[in-house]
Amino acid sequence: MTFVRQAAPPCESQAASALDALHLAGLQREFQAATSNLNGVSWVASAEFMETLSKSQVGVIHRSSKGTVLAVNAFYQELIGREDEDFAHINIQDHAHPEEAENILHRYRENAVTRQSYQMNRRYVRSDGTERWGTVHVSFLQDGSSIGIVLDETIRRQAEADLRESEEHYRNTVELSPQYAWTTGLDGKMSAISSRWLEKVGAKPGTYLGDVWRSTVHPDNLPDIREAWARAQIDGQPIDVEYRANVGEGYRWFRSRGAPRLDEQGNIVRWYGAVEDIDDRKRAEQALRESEERFRLAAQAAGIGIWDFDTVQNRWEWSAEFKQMLGLPNEVQPDLRLAMTLIVAEDRPALSHLIRTVEANASDHRFEAFLRIHRADDDAIRCLQINGWRIQETHGRVQRVLVTLSDVTEQHNSSARMHWMASHDALTGLPNRGSLNEALEAAIAQAREKNENLALVMFDIDGFKEANDTIGHDAGDLLLCGFAKRLERCIGDRGFVARFGGDEFAAFLPRCRADELVALLSPALQDDGGVYHDGIGLDCNATAGAAFFPDHGDTGEDLLKTADVALYAGKASHRGMLTVFRPDMRASIQHRAAMLATARRVINEARVRPFYQPKVSLAGGHVAGFEALLRWQDADGAIRGPDSLSAAFEDLSLAPVLGERMLEAICRDMAHWLNQGLPFGRVAINLSPAEFRREDLFDRVMSQLHRHRVPPSLLELEVTETVFLGRGAETVADVLRKFHDEGLSLALDDFGTGYASLTHLQAFPVDVIKIDRSFVTDLSHGSTNAAIVDAIIGLAGRLGMDVIAEGIETQSEADYLIEHGCGFGQGYLFGAAVAGEAVERRLMQAGTAIIRAAG
What pTM did the predictor assign? Predict the structure, then answer.
């Protein structure tokens, strides 16, 4: 027991107990008896008595006439969650629930005046924030002090709440259950039925018993019910019947299931069951059957084969169209082993794996495959496209597998031709520029590994433009084809020959000396008199320039540049001959050197300035982010574009530094905008191919983000396909995946202008496709650009990627892109690139609203 000897303001604190009201009243009478003869003397309970009450889980609080706490027992302390301490500072409203505090104080003061005992229920808020319910009885002694006896009712109230919840749960379960309970005697006569069923059929209690229910059953279903009852009464097995019944709104389908209750001797005493409304399911099944029939008719009309497998009945079914695809007569029975023998050997493992995964539920509900077969009748190879669906029961077991098969031989051959056309020149049949780049990088890698040289030669047909312009395109085509054949004859298997573009050709030859190269190619450069047009011989001389790896370049790009320099030097003074690159031919490189010098000054004098062009949500019309574009400030303070530094972006030493200066400035701007609370979206920055040559690219980017406390998700990296085509593509893929795993978004810039874009979408973690500005112009319906844009948008949607269209300058272009589902756009229609200060002003003035005006 705790005693309090110091005075305090009037106070009140009461406890709760799990004892019932009679116990409380009894304790109160004991206290009244114990204090009735005090004659104004303050009452103090014995420690033993107070301890006894605590063990009985009864709280006691004794207050003076001024409300000062004189004593509390241990259970009261536990009730309010306070340790033994000076309780004199506990006022009446302490530990009271906020909703009850005012009423508790008012009640205490009101009864203290008349010294009339009272009882009330209240909640105590403990020190740890939990609540306890209590019933408190307050009595006033002759000296004006008060005794509060508190019984903890938390457990009882919780039990009552749980009981109410259980009852409500049961009531809802019964009321919301789709089934209606029933009971019958041995003869099948109804003795009890759910009141909800009576409401459904509009019957009154007592009027639906006996055999009345039979009158509602459809006559066609009554024989089945009688038979089911007769069989169940004999074997005592559960009954399960489906039938139609008239419930006042026409016939509906129901399912009735029941089971018998047996006595100790195993005799049936009574039947118990439930009725379920299955009309919707029955109608759905009928609709499914009708839909399947329509599907079969449509498939038959379209020449699509069907392979239907019922796993429950282990029944296979092949349509006549499918048998015809296989070259089998219609009377042949479906046989998996027979089908397997007709499949091309290389494709059989794929089909076996597909069948195993489908049967094991290890595939998606829908699956597809591509297979080749040998027709049974003529052994012709045909290509089949397979599309299948797994139909499951509610418990997940495969019930049926439905497969459609289409003969796509012509489409497949067309696709193969399209792939060939994408990698070859249609006129000469030679590989195109993209194929050359890819093969050249691979050859250089091999030469580097074996410490061998490689010669790259660029060719230009002399007089081609004159012949093409004066005689006609037919003559030009003959020149191109004639030179291509001559070049192939000379090089043969020694190297790789490609049409580079226009009247330019290229070839590379591993392990070739300069003198050997001159002797090998001289016949190809001289007209052999074999090209005629309308009986007129055409001059088909050519000039060539050569460069060698590793002497003249370390990459395919470097070799192409130096070979091109040699070609143009040869065209200026040695037409019809092969010119090997020499360092003194670098006059054209001087301009490049000047660019590099300017770039170094820009870096050293910290003149890099990022400008930001808004990227707009086309559907919402708001700014979704920005693309950061490099600008630099010259000595006069004028802002210059990146074209004057273009050579630096190809330089392995300068490009990473320029990129780092840009990134540092961008991160600084982003951190400032974040501190200002400005919603700027995601900022994109371009990474040049040269930056990927540095092994520390990932660390440098992440270091800047961490240092400025910018979340990685707010930065987007834009790369072009040249990054993927260059040397070390595997390293590039690894770096991009690391960025992607850190939350940075990756965008493929200038999509559609390079080579093998679809391959790159598969091989690299691309999040955003940027449609090149060259495709955005002339988006009139039916135009080539419109078809390309539609295809890109559709492809991105299938791959789950965002699409940004660049270079939008007119409202009609924006409207077309919006209509066809392009998510985002940028261009002068929405604003030119501006400095970071202007971005901040725009965001502060108008939030993310976009002003559709240039600049």
Answer: 0.38
